[in-house]
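Continuing the series of single-chain predictions for the mutant panel. This is the parent chain; the variants come on the following pages.
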Amino acid sequence: MHPILFHIGGINIYSYGVLVATGVLAGLWYARKRAPRAGLDPDKVWNMGIYTVLVALLLAKVWLILSDWDYYVANPRDIFSLNTFQSGGTFYGGIVGAILMIVLYSYFQKMPLLPVMDTIVAGLPLGHAIGRLGCFAAGCCYGKPTTVAWGVVFTNPAAAQLAGTPLGVHLHPTQLYEAAAEFLNFLILVWIGKRQRFTGQIIATYFLLYGVERGTIEFFRGDPGRTMMFHDTVSLMQIVSVGLIVTGAFLWWRGLRGKGAPMASSSAARATVAR
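Parent structure:
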């Protein structure tokens, strides 16, 4: 594919970074658009989204450094290197940072957490789908070797250098699998959002959809560093996926039993924001 989009002086501008940034903005745009329906201030939702992205990136890099502490102790200058700055960091650190920021911002701004989560997560699959196209352009998060007709072959040496992508090998296009699945998830959440019956329904649906999606796609992933467990039979993300499915099912059960707060009407939501 095309890992390096263009150059500015001696600095490489990567396709992955551009598409991930585009995905983030698209997800935040949709979350801001949905905010009034949940009775939330669109500007606060937008600001929270920006802070969440920044904190998630910071924690992702901190987690990356801690996970390879011996190397960075021996090479402390690399902590502040351009490569570390351009790195996306670790997924787990980003998740921890994002959750922490959302909870803290909601608490200090006196915003109800479940409506906030419903609003933020509504645009997440859209951003994720665009970001996975960035993975495909970069050659990272690649799949296992395959003989299926739709297998892809990477040939760009930059992909091998930057992401360790095997060149000249037919691989499952797991990046495209996930991009397609996430875009479908987004459409489902849009449909659910127009018919939402209880608070927490959108995040519950997302947990179910993403848990099934990611847990399945992990079987086709071939890139290293995914924290394989139980004699390399399952990855940590598959265990996390089970947790997401269980949490999503519980939230659905809670909502259908009437324990989740009903959605406010559009007029009530607008009145809440106006206040």
